[in-house]
Amino acid sequence: MDIDQLERIGDIVVRGDKWGPWHYSFPHTCEPKCPDAWKVCHHHECRDSTCGEKCVDFICELCCPDSKNLALPGPPAEGDASQLMLHAQMYEIGDKYDVVGLKELAREKYLCASAKYWDDEHFAPAAHYAFSTTPEDDNGLRNVVSTTISQHMTLLNKPAVEALLAEFNGLALGLLKMRAKELGWVKAA
Question: What is the pTM of this model?
Answer without folding.
Answer: 0.62
